[in-house]
Description:
Chain A contains no helices and eleven strands. Chain A is mainly beta. In chain A, the strands form two sheets. In chain A, strands 2, 4, 5, 9, 10 and 11 form a six-stranded mixed sheet that branches. In chain A, a hairpin with a 5-residue loop joins strand 7 (about 60-65) and strand 8 (about 70-75). The termini of chain A are far apart. In chain B, strands 2, 4, 5, 6, 9, 10 and 11 form a seven-stranded mixed sheet that branches.
Amino acid sequence: xxxxxxxxxxxxxxxxxxxxxxxxxxxxxxxxxxxxxxxxxxxxxxxxxxxxxxxxxxxxxxxxxxxxxxxxxxxxxxxxxxxxxxxxxxxxxxxxxxxxxxxxxxxxxxxxx
Amino acid sequence: xxxxxxxxxxxxxxxxxxxxxxxxxxxxxxxxxxxxxxxxxxxxxxxxxxxxxxxxxxxxxxxxxxxxxxxxxxxxxxxxxxxxxxxxxxxxxxxxxxxxxxxxxxxxxxxxxxxxx
Lengths: 113, 117
């Protein structure tokens, strides 16, 4: 069964680095891995996207191993405003010739002062 | 630049009715995708439209349908509503630089909260 798996929740103190991993078997060969952030009562917001190895932007880094069966979102020095739910989004090939765009169930990050 | 807008923001319907939700993408964006979000199932992909054509579809019954107009605005329709259709319906648009929703940065609207009684 093609699916993605993320931890349900994580706690972190302000100023720490947070790493959230998403496991995704059967990822489609040419698809990117994308991470979104969602605050209550808002739509998700794009954080970062990558295909392999490492990608970094002004807010996060994304680490993708060679086999692309997982990815890790890294948030450096989190603050209270980073408290949100984080989702990975991947395209999966659950069976021959089929394609399934799939969000993870989301990881609720709580940043503690 | 205005963001993605969705109307209405809240809607209450009864079982068996049908509903149409509207989405206006960011100006210049040609791809529009729809998602259903519930506490139990999370975010689920419904379908994606590009240039008035459905390019990708998730695993939802045929009661869920959509369309896109020449100005890229999109509507989704749910017929014969069931209690389980109560959810937040999100629309997202993208520039579609790379040819697939999974390759592009998507911009989400605030959603339409549908309650089925």
